[in-house]
């Protein structure tokens, strides 16, 4: 089987080819990237376990960290299981934690797993931080006293402390907890104006970048990139200002191998709830920057997720307006997830989505002029529907080199998160995500599609195991260590050898990209 550039395949049948011709066919059909499922780990769930879901976090090449919060007697405990990269259990244990706490974030730093707990009722602004050893599970608990109650949306750990990002009174803030003094303080540069915390990113040199989107004095949305030391001291601030009639809605930062900083994101017009295109800014060591804007209509494959006729009509409309010297304005909800180096380029990955609503009629709309009850249509949020992922390659000068897209089918979630992951190789990139027990993937090379969309079922543990599409829930695919991913979730597994044999499990599948 070989694939052509359009992603279609052909099979040679009923032809008796000589050995020379057969060898030639093998040579002209290069082996394409694929995802291999290596092994599987299962924990059988009881009815009680359903109330306390297992979750999993990457320990990179040290394995995986499986955890859940449970109640034993009248005591809350954190149940931890550590497995190695072969999915064999290394150790497990239980750690007592304070009541009325919920798990907020998990982070790995210097062979320590940091579990951040927040108060479930938000009455207090205090947090608890558990640092446990990857090697043997030994741990230490830090109590973070804080007088400002907020819900942490970002969390990282440095050599000197932990940074928690969130909002208070619609204003972004970052709290720094010092491991040496065991005291917390709000980092300088916050509490000034309402805004959105886009990212807290730790760089290879140990410094931390905090990206905030907020309005400037001209009431245009701009990006503030504040760089802090590992100890929370402010080093410098760079403000990215948009050009006329534009707003910088959202951005993510990354340091390139040449030590230049790249910020890529989305820009919009008057309605900052919708983006019109992509921007990329390159910042040098002196804080000078150059910003380039790309309308969604400038991208070659942005609309490839559409049906063929609709995509054709959209592109024809763009070309007609270009001939007349006009630009076509598109409005999308689009979130940038990653900006990463790729050879002598860097790539940006993002996903498009839109909110869905349901409508229900009720008789609580009051009474009309004659006393008759009036019906009222209530609009209820029904989750975010994803449409497609977009990946863009830029050269070292921030110039768009290529773009591609990956249709996302049937994915709806109540919390925005990254679904599509990237597996880069020297001359190709595979895009993949997990949904309804299927690993869906697509392999590209710049603007070309080397392998069209495929869907492979998750590998089960035993022969004759069957998992139906509706029997998988809370599934996720995430990065593990180089060239490896892990998939996890809850499944009801039936076995064909016994008519009534089934089990409900928490599973982890190890995947390798090659």
Helicity level: under 10%
Q: Work out the radius of gyration.
A: 25 Å
Strand tally: 36
Strand content: over 45%
Report the major sheet.
Answer: 5 strands, antiparallel
Q: Overall 3D geometry?
A: globular
Mean pLDDT metric? 86
Low-confidence stretches: 1-31
Secondary-structure-based class equals mainly beta
Describe the structure concisely:
This protein is mainly β.
Describe this structure in words.
The chain has 514 residues and is mainly β. The chain has two helices and 36 strands. The strands form nine sheets. Strands 3, 33, 34, 35 and 36 form a five-stranded antiparallel β-sheet that branches. It is globular.
Could you outline the blueprint of secondary structure elements for this entry?
Elements: E1 2-3, E2 9-10, H1 19-28, E3 35-44, E4 55-58, E5 64-72, E6 75-83, E7 89-97, E8 101-109, E9 112-119, E10 127-133, E11 139-144, E12 154-157, E13 161-168, E14 171-178, E15 184-186, E16 196-202, E17 208-215, E18 221-228, E19 234-240, E20 247-255, E21 261-268, E22 277-283, E23 289-295, H2 308-323, E24 333-342, E25 345-362, E26 376-394, E27 400-407, E28 412-413, E29 421-424, E30 429-435, E31 438-445, E32 448-457, E33 465-466, E34 472-479, E35 484-495, E36 502-513
Antiparallel strand pairs: 1-2, 3-36, 4-5, 5-6, 6-7, 8-9, 9-10, 10-11, 12-13, 13-14, 14-15, 16-17, 17-18, 18-19, 20-21, 21-22, 22-23, 24-25, 25-26, 26-27, 26-28, 29-30, 30-31, 31-32, 33-35, 34-35, 35-36
